C-alpha cells in the first residue's frame, strides 16, 4: 500500500522546486549563463525536483512490493513496465536522472546551456509525473 503522506510530501516538493525554477529562469540561455544566482537556484531546484521524483518512484515500487531497481534510471522504467506512468514520460525522467547525477557530482563542470535547455523545456515532465502518481494513488 502506498504511503499517501510520503507521496503528498514528494509531490509538493517537486511542484515547489519547479515553481521556483520558473520564477528565476531567464528565457535567454546567455542571460542564464551570465546570472550566477539564477544558475544556482535552477541547479539546486532541479536537483531537488529530480531527487524527489526518484525517491517517489523508489518508494512507490517498494510500497507495492516490487524489487527496487539498481539505478535511478531503472526506477522510472519499472514504473512504466507496471503501467504507473507512460513509457515516454518514464524515458524522459530516466534521462533526467542523469542530469541529477551531473548536478550532484560535477557542479563545477556543468554545461549551463544543457541545464537551461532542460529547465526551459522539460519541467512539464516533472509536473506530469506528479499528476500521474497522484491519480494512481487515488485509484
Proportion of strand residues: under 5%
Could you say which structural class the secondary elements and strand pairing correspond to? mainly alpha
> What is the string of SSEs from the N terminus onward?
HHHHHHH
Low-pLDDT regions: none
Mean pLDDT: 93
> In this structure, how is the largest beta sheet organized?
none
The helicity comes to: over 70%
Rg over C-alpha atoms, rounded to the nearest angstrom: 15 Å
Q: What is the end-to-end distance?
A: 12 Å
By DSSP, the count of extended strands is: 0
Keywords:
single chain; Four Helix Bundle (Hemerythrin (Met), subunit A); 139 residues; elongated; 79% helix; mainly alpha
Structural topology:
Layout: H1 4-24, H2 29-34, H3 36-63, H4 72-81, H5 87-105, H6 112-121, H7 123-138
Helix pairs in contact: 1-3, 1-7, 3-4, 3-5, 3-6, 4-5
Could you explain how this protein is built, in words?
There is one protein chain. The chain has one domain (4-138): Up-down Bundle (Four Helix Bundle (Hemerythrin (Met), subunit A)). The protein has helices spanning 4-24, 29-34, 36-63, 72-81, 87-105, 112-121, 123-138. It is elongated. Helix content is 79%, strand content 0%.
